[in-house]
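To assess whether the prediction recovers the assembly geometry, we first specified each molecular entity separately, as shown.
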Amino acid sequence: MNNTTNNKKENFEPRIIAFVCQWCTYTGADLAGTSRIQYAPNVRIIKLPCTGRIDVHFILKAFEQGADGVIVSGCHPGDCHYTSGNYYARRRFEMFKKMMGFLGIDDKRLQFAWVSAAEGRKWGTLVDEVTNNVRALGPFEDYKSLKIFQAE
Amino acid sequence: MARIGVFVCWCGENIARTVDVVKVAEAMKSIQGVIVSLDYKYMCSDPGQKIIKEAIVNERLTGVVVALCSPLMHEKTFRTAAKEAGLNPFLLEVANIREHCSWVHEDKNEGTKKAIEITRSVVERVKQNHELQNITVPITNRALVIGGGIAGIQAALDIANGGHQVVMVERTPSIGGHMAGLSETFPTLDCSQCILTPRMVEVARHPNIKLYTYSEVESVHGFVGNFKVKIRKKARSVDINVCTGCGICQEKCPQKKIPSEFECGTGFRKAIYIPFPQAVPNKPVIDREHCTYFTKGKCKLCEKVCGPKAIRYDQVDEYVEEDVGAIVVATGYEVITSEKFPEYGAGRFKDVINGLQFERLASASGPTEGRIVRPSDGKEPETIVFIACAGSRDPAKGIPYCSKICCMYTAKHAMLYRHKIHHGKAYVFYMDIRSAGKGYDEFVRRAIEQDGALYVRGRVSRIYEKTVNGQKKLIVKGADTILNKAMEIEADMVVLATAVTPSPGAAQLAQKVGTPYNEYEFFSEAHPKLRPVESNTAGVFLAGSAQSPKDIPESVSDASAAASKVQILFSKKELERDPYVSVVNTDKCFGCFSCEAVCPYRAITREEIKNRKGEVVRMVAQINKGLCQGCGGCISICRAKACDLIGYTDEQIWAQIHSYPADPIDPTEENGHE
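The predicted structure of the complete assembly is given in tokenized form:
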């Protein structure tokens, strides 16, 4: 199994799923588009109303489905459209990061960020950074090797 | 069985340059449930929309995915088109392959691959979509205005003149607010009462305005369009329906030495009193704290002299409930008192007063009938010192913000003083002169150049009393930072332009109304630039100094803006909004109410589940669709997974996550989908 992993690592392109809020980061990513900011194509965005809506199950599901990295990004503190959703999210993901080791996932695979609607550049940089970091970590295959998933 | 149509847009070259749109459309055909998948040069054009509409009808589509620009751009366009073709608009979703794909990637292979995956994930999502209807909420076309100062008066009159009912609640016995007590107003120096009192009378007379004075908002329940407000009418001890306002009771009352609130402590009032001669309503109130009858059990002089027999000693607080659809908060401001300034005498020196007190001294209706005299001995001050920024912009006093109105009223005070005492010297200590506004800077220049106010840039460090030549003087020690020298002025009187703070109890009121406020307890606007008179709570609007220090013109324009917002709300019988709200599965909910704690909109209510005997078995959460804004905070906190967000259900999100498989599609392969 180790061999296959190493083989894969050579031209490994990480798959990143980003859960973003529709008010700040989604719009920020739109701005990156209108500003023609180039960034790594590895990210797949899933739009939600607020980072406070993001259940940790989503993140687990993403890893389970083969994501190598996950981004959670919303409005800056104080800017939440719903006044406090991002604070709850921040707390939730601080806790969740601590639990990731227990779950067998390197916590570097999850990146929490604030990207405002005006920060197209920051969004591009964030995606590039996370892509590079996760590329260095290699593919996330620990779950795939579990019997329960092989059976599917 | 789902029948999905996928429509991929070229956006001219915008998408097609880096995404092989033909391949994207082709790849979608292999997905289960996709009936039709095609590409077109400009989907948003009329012919493009026609293609979609025809496909919806001809192919009996149950879901549509348009792969093109950001949903923020054209989601509405295409949803309207879907609706026109007879498809529920919420069964159409946008896959963003322009802003999130073609514009940010140069490699056509990568771009195509990403576009396929994005579109596919949205196809999977659409399969989980349900038909939704916009939520409609009935609206009570009646507004509550809290606060009867100039902002509240303006808002109430505008709404009432627009043909809607208004309920106005004012805490004090009369409306008018601070403006009723001002002498003359900058920058025109027109008499404050002359412009205000007709408005006050108009409020009282207006057939659409119901006025509650000497009353407070006790509680607010409900949501936009449907508020239930409980108002406490404080016991006036006078039946205002019987009272004629003749004022004999006030004349005869033996309690004479009670500092008058209206005079800001510069004058006195009786225990039964009409706050000021032009008060609206012009009816007295008994101050039970000072009334001899209430404190000692004897007197009843007012009852004896009252012709129409309007005195009611046994009156108690009365509670009334009003249904309203919108609330305008116009609770105004207060200024901090000189007690906060130990360095300036901390209220010990009688001749150190604040700006509002000076207004009363300068007012023709004030305790001195407009003569500016020292409160200590009634003599005209020969030298007067005005200190701007007393507390404002001073983090040490806990007030880092600018009080905004002081620069202007201090200039006005200096001017009024010089108009009345021609030989007197008026010094003004200032940090900066902030006189932005129409005719404002000219006004300040006039105070300096024509009326000879002596402006000193610098701060005052200390004030102390000293007897000079047998006369009591206030020694003002400060610095002139322009000349770079210390200053010492022998003054007869000092006026502090003390900082503006929110009206006491603003925070408690904000909590009752359920709207945010800042660390200084000023009400927060929904957006500082684009929604300046709306609060974050739907249906609650802000006017005047409740939000931040404001002068009269600003308060009035605020109030008219808020009134116009109220009337926009009232222009429809029902309020229509997106159906994206949370729902609770009451079978799963076990009543931990964590959702209640995180909900920023107080949209969670507790509902009893009863058995057949009518006994309460358990409590569950319910969501008020009128209040819920669809943030979804309740869902991720819910331990029982009983909550879900319509439009962003777990199923929809999971479908998207599932569609990003472990092995990416290679667009170069045919039927890349696994």
